[in-house]
Design goal:
Helix 2 crosses helix 5 and helix 4 runs antiparallel to helix 5. The strands form 3 sheets. The chain has a 7-stranded parallel beta sheet with strand order 5-7-4-1-11-12-13, with helices on both faces. It has 14 helices and 13 strands. With 362 residues, the chain is of the alpha/beta class. It is globular and about 60 Å long. The chain binds zinc ion. Zinc ion binds next to loops.
Length: 362
């Protein structure tokens, strides 16, 4: 029987190997960049970082009354997002600056790290980094002559659903001549790279450092660039205001007042609903993220093809993941479907395990 498709769901852990900070140490990392005179931040950028930390300091006064972890980037982003929506003075600028801090921190930390090579080709000149290899496997780009794995029969292309703001996978796909399909509806696509024949859905649930919108115009127009650097100094086609990265906090899902990302979430639901094998990489499914748990439950309740769920963590997170996902996927049938490969994070998984799982059914 032909295999239908794999769907890869990526969390922050999938970018951590490239140097991206995690939620709990994101603000510490941004602080370190601010303190380091050689971090690459200019004076204007430093002011924007500082204004975020000032706002955080103000919020701390109220922290005695509520249980919010303001040192966690997700919580801080969520609070600022709400503050802006209710018109709290200074919140709009602070939110803009926080969005800037997030994408700039990702740019500086990921840019600083050597990407990890994957060694498994007989010909060393074909070695590539783990993100490129991942993109090639997902898109079935043949990496060698007579690569039989590239011709495995599948009835639908694989796809990637990610919570991450960074453009690691986007860039890897472009280097491998694979065109990321963002499922944004009719976005204003300003990517410089030509669309190639191979297309893979790259569904970014919380937005992307490479996507922008106008902070002033009350419309749903989304501009798409190759990455954050490509969007710099670009302005709104309507009002000429500088564009702002389109990223949203995880809390955004609950009170979505804007339709920017509605087609993206719909596409993710369709993908998970039709996955035959679902990979969950570097995402811990925290109980606080109830919205996504419901989303997953809803999509999987309508999935009649699901055979396996492969959960990839680092070593430290594996036992906890077994508990979390064991509870999430209940029932005897589900227990047989859950796999926890002994991989140590994303790079190790791509290097040593990915083909074993993707190589076909059974
Ligand atoms: Zn505008």
């Amino acid at each position: 029987m032909p295999f239908k498709k794999n769907v890869f769901l990526l969390g922050a852990g999938a970018s951590a190997d490239a140097g991206a900070p995690l939620m709990w140490n994101f603000l510490q990392t941004a602080q370190a960049l601010l303190r380091d005179p050689r971090s690459g931040l200019d004076d204007e950028e430093r002011k924007r970082f500082e204004s975020v930390f000032r706002y955080q300091f103000q919020l701390r006064k109220a922290q005695a009354f509520v249980d919010v972890d303001l040192d966690n980037i997700e919580d801080l982003f969520g609070v600022l997002d709400l503050d802006e929506r209710v018109g709290q003075p200074g919140a709009k600028a602070a939110r803009e600056n926080l969005v800037f801090l997030i994408v700039r921190t990702l740019e500086l930390t990921i840019g600083r790290t050597e990407l990890h090579p994957v060694y498994w080709e007989p010909d060393p000149s074909r070695n590539v980094n783990a993100w490129d290899r991942f993109a090639q496997v997902v898109a079935r780009v043949p990496v060698a002559k007579n690569d039989r794995r590239a011709s495995l029969v599948k009835t639908e292309p694989d796809s990637i659903v990610t919570f991450n703001y960074d453009t690691l996978i986007d860039a890897a796909m472009l280097r491998s001549a694979v065109h990321p399909e963002f499922c944004l509806g009719d976005a204003d696509d300003r990517r410089t790279s030509p669309a190639s024949a191979a297309k893979i859905r790259l569904i970014k649930l919380h937005g992307s450092a490479g996507w922008s919108h106008c902070p002033l115009c009350d419309d749903d127009r989304v501009y798409v660039f190759d990455d954050y650097a490509g969007s710099r100094a670009k302005t709104c086609a309507t009002c000429n205001a500088p564009l702002s990265p389109l990223i949203v906090p995880p809390t955004w899902d609950k009170g979505a007042s804007r339709s920017y990302l509605a087609p993206v979430w719909k596409a993710a639901w369709d993908e998970i609903r039709t996955a035959q094998r679902l990979f969950i990489v570097g995402y811990s499914a925290p109980s606080s993220d109830r919205h996504f748990r419901y989303f997953l439950a809803s999509a999987l309740a309508n999935n009649y093809d699901l055979q396996d769920v492969v959960v990839v963590t680092d070593e430290a997170g594996r036992e906890k993941a077994k508990t979390t996902y064991g509870a999430l996927f209940t029932g005897a049938a589900a227990a047989h479907r859950l796999h926890f490969p002994e991989a140590h994070g994303f790079v190790n998984f791509v290097s040593n395990y990915l083909w074993h799982f993707v190589g076909g059914p059974g």
